[in-house]
Amino acid sequence: VRFVQDHIRYLGFESGISAYIPNSPGVVLKRRFGDCKDKSLLLCAILKTIGVEARPVLVNMSGLYDESMLQPSPLAFNHCIVQVFFNNDYWYVDPTLSSQGGVGGTFYVPQYGEGLVLRDGTEGLTNIDKPGNTKILSRSTFIIDSIGGNAILKVFSKYEGGQADVNRAFFESSSID
Question: Residue 65 has what pLDDT?
Fold first, then answer.
C-alpha cells in the first residue's frame, strides 16, 4: 500500500479515453505515475500477487450517501479507491493519499459515503466505513517565574487519523526553516 501511495506519483490526465480507462499496471509501474484509476488497479494487482483480495471502488469525492436519490450515470463517480479483503474483514485505502500512517484496516479514508465495487455480481453501492476518528489533541502550559518576569509556553499536540496524515505530509514537504 505504501509503495503505491508514496512511490507512484499521482498525476491525472483527465481528457479523452484516459479519463475513463486505466492504464495497465505494468505501464504505471514502469513510468512511476498514474491517476487514481491507474494507482488503484496497480495496488489491486500487487495485492493479488501476494494472495490478498482487492477490488477497485468508484466513489465521488463529495460523497455518495443515498443511492435512492441518484440516477445511474458514469458522471456520478470522479475518483477510484481500493477495497481490500484481509483477515476476514473489508477495509478501504485511497492509493492517491501519501504519507499515511497506521496499519492496514486503520488507514484514514475521507468520507466518500458509498462506492461502486468493481466486481462481478455487484448490484448496488457499498457503504465505505471510515476507520477511526480524525482529531487533534492539544495542551498548552504556561510557566511564569514571576509577575512581569519571563514566561515559557509549552505546547503538546497530538494528531490522529486524517489530521496526522495531513500534518505528516506537511512536515515531509516543508523545509526546516
Answer: 59
- pLDDT digit string (tens) for 130-169? 655 677 788 888 889 888 889 998 988 887 777 777 777 7
Residue 117 Ramachandran class (φ > 0 left, ψ -120 to 50 alpha, else beta): beta
pLDDT of residue 96: 94
